[in-house]
Amino acid sequence: MITIPATTERYTHLIAKAQTYDYHYYVLDNPLVPDADYDALVRDIRALEAEHPELIAPDSPSQRVGGGLLAQFESVAHAIPMLSLDNVFSEAELSEFNQRIIERLGLPAEANIPYVAEPKLDGLAISLRYENGLLMQALTRGDGRVGENVLANVKTIRAIPLKLSGDFPPLLEVRGEVFMPRQGFALLNQTQLDKGEKTFANPRNAAAGSLRQLDSRITATRPLAFYAYGLGATDGLTRPASYAETLTTLRGFGLPICPLFRVLSGLPELLTYYHQVLSQRDKLDYDIDGVVYKVNEVALQQRLGFLSRAPRWAIAHKFPAQEKSTLVQAID
Predict the structure, then answer these.
(1) Which residue range is the domain that position 262 belongs to?
(2) pTM for the complete prediction?
(3) Catalytic residue, candidates 120, 155, 163, 294
(4) What is the number of structural domains in the chain?
């Protein structure tokens, strides 16, 4: 079928409009239109694609819908290993971590190290690979060196752009967290109950089960979200000089980041941030189990280096376990 230029132009315009709406909704947290208007836009795109299938673009909203059942996930080696973080559980342990940083850098004992602090999301780590701006691969952490490619499932998550925005490099690997907001989790469990099916124990359990579905059509029905928090392999990108600049760069490419990150200086500010976020824990629409601190300057990160499984320049400050009461029905 011959596609007239006006149709191609209209299709391109509709795709761009959908991407703009997604960017404002997920990255800027500032929706431009009601959900009904967005849905109508997607219907218009689908109608054009049905009439002119040769137009279908890889970054079309229609490509988010799950496409069928896989026999298994492909195992793929990470270009750069996905390391985990060491943990601290007290102010004293955090102070010891901060002091080790100061000593390794050869700084005076009273030095205030610049850090970035952000909530520790209780979800699943994912590595997104963009080639020429298009999402081509999505690997789970796995054992840190080899993960599973869950691309078909990740493409159903609207918060993750199928195509990057701005002046993106030829290759960009983005590290981040897939999670399920509490409101979506509650609705999912209610749907499970209505269908007489098993409910999920918590949002992380629901997110994990959703991301590893062999049938991506099931994943497409699950309310998953995503925040980016780092870089993997890149080509053609001038690496930002700080972690805070990295987050800003990712946001500029159309990737959502956690709005609660802060640039801090020294141990007292870290502890203040920790208690502020802990006090907000129950008010957030997503589960967190602590706070992550990362040395802000990349040059300092490089000097500090890595242990076998974790960077020396980052630590997770875990929250106390949340107490849950249990009603005893009977004692045998």
Answers:
(1) 87-122+257-318
(2) 0.89
(3) 120
(4) 2
